[in-house]
C-alpha cells in the first residue's frame, strides 16, 4: 500500500499534474478532493472529463467515471458484492477505491489516452432493430459503420507510419540531397555536351549511342521474355505430362473395368456426395453456427468474476436437476419397453452413427490422399527445378507402390503362416508333453496293477517281446509254456480293461449330458447377450432423446437470454433518449443565448422559418408567373405570326429579285438581236 501511494504521489508531482503532494498531504485529502483529483486524471486522459465535480450531482459524477472506466476496461477486484461496494465507494470517494484506480490510471496514461481517443469514434451506438427497419435510419447506420471502418484503417496506417520512423526532417534532407545530385548531374551533362561539340560528327555518334542503348534495352526485354517463355513452356509441359498420365490412367480404368462397375462406382460416389451435402455438412454447419453464436455471446458479455461463475454453475446444476426430474417423469409416463418399433429405432440409430463414422473416415482419407498428391507434385516440380535424377512418373510410381503392396501382402501372409506354424508347434509340444506325462502315469498305474496282481514287469516283458520278435521262432519251443501263461494273463488283462470300460460308461454318459448342458448354457448366454445389446441400444436411444431435449432447453435458455439482452438494449436506448430530452430541456430553459441556439428545437425552428420564407417567395413568384402567363402566351403567338409574316416577305422578295433578273436577261437578248 505504501509503494502504491508513493508511486501515485510521484506521478502526480510530475508533468502535467504538478500537484506538489507529499505522502502525508495526499493521505489527508478528503473524499471530495479525491474525487476531483480522479476527475482531473480522467480529464488528462479524455479532455471531456475535465470538469469541476461541484457543478454536477454525485450520481452524475459516478456515472461519468464508471462509463469512462468501462471504456478503458478497468476491472475492479473482488466479487459481485465487491462490485456494488466499488460503486458505492466511488460515489462517496473512499480511499480504498480511489487509490487503486489512480494507481492503475497513472501506470498506463499514454495507452489509456489513445484508448479514450479511439473510443470516441469506435464505441458503436446500438440502434434498436425496429428503428433499423426505416430505410433512412438503416442507410445512416450503414454509412456510420463504413466511416468507422475507414477510421480504423486510417489509424492503423498512421500508427504504422509513426513506427516506421519516417519524419518530415529526414524526408526534407533526402529531397535536398537529391536536388544537389540533380544539379551535379546537370553540370556534368553540360560539361560533357561542351566536350562533345568539339568532336566531328558528334550528332551522328550521339544518334548511334542512342540506338545502341535502345538495342541493349530491347535485348534485356527479349531475354526477360525468353525466360518467361521458358517458364511458361515448363509449366505447359508439366500440364501436358499430367494430362497424359491422367489419360493413360483413364484408359487403363476404362480397359480394366466394365460399364456396370463404372456405373456402380459413380452411384457410390453420388450417394456419398449427396449424403455429405444433404446430411453431414448441414449438420456440421448447424453445429458450427451454434458454437459461433455461443462464442459471440460469450465475447459480448462483460468480464465475469468468480462469483458470476459460481452463480452460473449453481444455475446449471439446478437446470440439470430439473432435466433429470423431467426425464424420470417421462420415463415413468411413457415406458419405451412396450414399443414395437424400439428395436428398429435402435438399429437405425446405431447404423446412422456407424454411417457417420465411416463417412468421416472416408472424407479424412480423401483429404489425406489429396494432400499427398499435392506433396508429390511439389516434390516432383522441385526435383525438376533442381535438375536432379529422373523422377518417377505417376504411373510408374503407382506400379512401384502396387509391387510394394503385393510384396508387403506376401510378407504378411508368410509371417502369418510362420506365426500359425509357431503356434501349432507350441501346441504340439504341449500335446507331446501331456501325452508323455499321461504315458508315464499309465505306466505307473500299470506297474502298480501288475504288482498288485503279481505280474509286475508285464509291460517291460511285452516290450522285450516286441524287441526280440525277430528271434521268436527260435525260442517258441523254449518258451511255449510261458506264452500260454502270458496269453492267459492277456485274457485276464482284456477282461479287466472291459470291466474298466463298463465302469466308465456311466461316467461318459454323464459327461455327454454335461456337454449338452454346456451347449444349452452357451445358447442361453448368446440370447442374453442379444437382449443386453438391444437393451443397451434402447438406453443409447433414450440418451440421445434426452440430449435432444437438453439441447432444446439450452436453445430456449439462449432465446430467453437474447430477449433479456434485447430488453436491456431497449432500456438503454430509452435512457439515452430520455437523457437527450433532458439535455434539450436544459438547453431550452438555459439563460445563455448560445446554449439556447444550440438546442435542437431552436435549430429546427430556424430551419422551419427559412423554409417558410422560401415557400412564401416561391408562391409569390408562382403568382406572378400565373398572372403574366396569358399575356406572355399571347405575345409569343404574336411573335410567331410576325416570324411567319417576315418569312413570307422574304420569300416574296426573293421571287421578285429572280423575276427581275430574268427580265433583264431577256431585254439584253432582244437588244442584241436588234443590233444584228
From TrEMBL:
Subcellular location field: Cytoplasm, Cytoskeleton, Cilium basal body
GO-annotated molecular function: tubulin binding
Record-level GO BP terms: cell differentiation; cilium assembly; intraciliary transport; spermatogenesis
Pfam families in UniProt: IFT81_CH
Location of the IFT81 calponin homology domain: 3-126
Record-level GO cellular component terms: ciliary basal body; intraciliary transport particle B
Keyword annotations from UniProtKB, A to Z: Acetylation, Cell projection, Cilium, Cilium biogenesis/degradation, Coiled coil, Cytoplasm, Cytoskeleton, Differentiation, Phosphoprotein, Spermatogenesis
Regions annotated as coiled coil: 137-232, 309-382, 483-563
Known function: Component of the intraflagellar transport (IFT) complex B: together with IFT74, forms a tubulin-binding module that specifically mediates transport of tubulin within the cilium. Binds tubulin via its CH (calponin-homology)-like region. Required for ciliogenesis. Required for proper regulation of SHH signaling. Plays an important role during spermatogenesis by modulating the assembly and elongation of the sperm flagella.
PANTHER family the UniProt entry points to: INTRAFLAGELLAR TRANSPORT PROTEIN 81 HOMOLOG (PTHR15614)
Homology family: Belongs to the IFT81 family.
Name the UniProt record assigns to this protein: Intraflagellar transport protein 81 homolog
Amino acid at each position: 500500500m505504501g509503494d502504491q501511494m508513493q508511486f501515485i504521489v510521484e506521478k502526480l508531482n510530475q508533468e502535467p499534474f504538478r500537484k506538489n503532494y507529499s505522502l502525508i498531504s495526499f493521505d489527508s485529502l478528503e473524499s471530495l478532493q479525491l474525487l476531483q483529483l480522479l476527475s482531473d486524471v480522467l480529464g488528462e486522459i479524455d479532455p471531456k472529463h475535465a470538469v469541476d465535480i461541484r457543478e454536477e450531482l454525485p450520481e452524475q459524477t459516478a456515472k461519468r467515471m464508471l462509463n469512462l472506466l468501462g471504456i478503458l476496461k478497468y476491472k475492479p477486484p473482488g466479487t459481485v458484492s465487491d462490485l456494488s461496494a466499488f460503486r458505492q465507494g466511488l460515489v462517496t470517494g473512499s480511499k480504498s477505491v480511489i487509490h487503486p484506480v489512480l494507481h492503475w490510471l497513472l501506470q498506463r496514461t499514454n495507452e489509456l489516452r489513445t484508448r479514450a481517443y479511439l473510443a470516441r469514434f469506435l464505441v458503436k451506438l446500438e440502434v434498436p432493430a425496429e428503428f433499423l427497419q426505416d430505410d433512412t435510419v438503416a442507410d445512416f447506420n450503414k454509412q456510420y459503420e463504413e466511416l468507422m471502418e475507414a477510421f480504423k484503417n486510417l489509424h492503423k496506417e498512421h500508427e504504422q507510419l509513426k513506427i516506421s520512423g519516417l519524419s518530415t526532417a529526414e524526408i526534407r534532407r533526402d529531397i535536398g540531397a537529391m536536388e544537389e545530385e540533380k544539379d551535379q548531374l546537370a553540370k556534368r551533362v553540360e560539361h560533357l555536351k561542351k566536350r562533345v561539340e568539339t568532336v566531328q560528327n558528334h550528332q551522328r555518334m550521339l544518334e548511334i549511342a542512342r540506338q545502341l542503348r535502345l538495342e541493349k534495352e530491347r535485348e534485356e526485354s527479349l531475354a526477360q521474355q525468353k525466360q518467361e517463355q521458358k517458364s511458361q513452356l515448363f509449366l505447359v509441359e508439366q500440364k501436358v505430362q499430367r494430362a497424359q498420365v491422367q489419360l493413360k490412367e483413364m484408359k487403363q480404368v476404362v480397359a480394366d473395368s466394365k460399364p456396370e462397375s463404372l456405373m456402380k462406382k459413380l452411384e457410390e460416389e453420388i450417394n456419398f456426395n449427396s449424403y455429405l451435402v444433404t446430411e453431414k455438412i448441414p449438420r456440421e454447419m448447424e453445429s458450427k453456427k451454434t458454437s459461433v453464436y455461443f462464442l459471440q455471446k460469450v465475447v459480448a458479455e462483460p468480464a465475469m468474476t468468480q462469483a458470476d461463475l459460481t452463480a452460473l454453475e449453481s444455475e446449471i446444476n439446478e437446470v440439470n436437476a430439473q432435466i433429470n426430474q423431467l426425464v424420470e417423469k417421462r420415463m415413468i409416463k411413457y415406458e419405451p419397453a412396450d414399443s414395437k418399433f424400439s428395436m428398429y429405432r435402435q438399429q437405425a440409430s446405431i447404423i446412422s452413427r456407424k454411417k457417420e463414422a465411416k463417412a468421416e473416415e472416408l472424407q479424412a482419407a480423401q483429404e489425406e490422399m489429396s494432400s499427398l498428391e499435392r506433396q508429390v507434385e511439389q516434390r516432383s516440380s522441385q526435383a525438376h527445378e533442381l535438375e536432379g535424377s529422373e523422377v518417377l512418373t505417376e504411373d510408374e510410381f503407382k506400379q512401384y507402390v502396387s509391387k510394394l503392396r503385393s510384396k508387403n501382402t506376401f510378407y504378411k501372409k508368410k509371417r502369418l503362416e510362420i506365426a500359425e506354424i509357431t503356434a501349432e508347434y507350441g501346441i504340439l509340444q504341449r500335446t507331446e508333453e501331456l501325452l508323455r506325462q499321461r504315458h508315464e502315469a499309465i505306466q505307473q498305474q500299470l506297474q502298480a496293477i501288475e504288482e498288485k496282481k503279481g505280474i509286475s514287469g508285464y509291460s517291460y516283458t511285452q516290450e522285450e517281446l516286441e524287441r526280440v520278435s525277430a528271434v521268436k521262432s527260435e525260442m517258441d519251443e523254449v518258451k511255449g509254456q510261458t506264452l500260454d501263461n502270458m496269453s492267459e494273463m492277456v485274457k485276464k488283462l482284456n477282461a479287466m480293461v472291459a470291466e474298466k470300460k463298463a465302469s466308465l460308461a456311466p461316467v461318459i454318459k454323464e459327461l455327454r449330458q454335461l456337454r449338452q448342458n454346456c451347449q444349452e448354457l452357451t445358447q442361453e448366454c448368446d440370447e442374453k447377450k442379444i437382449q443386453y445389446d438391444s437393451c443397451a441400444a434402447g438406453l443409447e436411444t433414450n440418451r440421445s432423446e434426452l440430449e435432444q431435449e437438453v439441447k432444446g432447453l439450452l436453445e430456449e435458455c439462449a432465446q430467453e437470454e437474447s430477449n433479456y439482452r434485447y430488453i436491456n438494449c431497449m432500456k438503454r436506448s430509452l435512457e439515452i433518449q430520455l437523457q437527450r430530452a433532458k439535455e434539450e430541456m436544459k438547453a431550452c430553459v438555459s439563460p445563455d443565448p448560445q446554449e439556447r441556439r444550440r438546442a435542437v428545437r431552436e435549430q429546427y425552428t430556424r430551419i422551419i422559418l427559412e423554409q417558410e420564407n422560401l415557400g412564401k417567395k416561391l408562391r409569390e413568384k408562382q403568382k406572378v408567373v400565373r398572372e403574366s402567363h396569358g399575356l406572355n402566351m399571347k405575345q409569343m403567338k404574336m411573335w410567331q405570326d410576325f416570324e411567319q409574316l417576315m418569312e413570307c416577305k422574304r420569300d416574296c422578295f426573293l421571287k421578285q429579285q429572280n423575276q427581275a433578273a430574268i427580265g433583264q436577261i431577256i431585254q439584253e437578248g432582244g437588244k442584241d438581236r436588234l443590233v444584228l
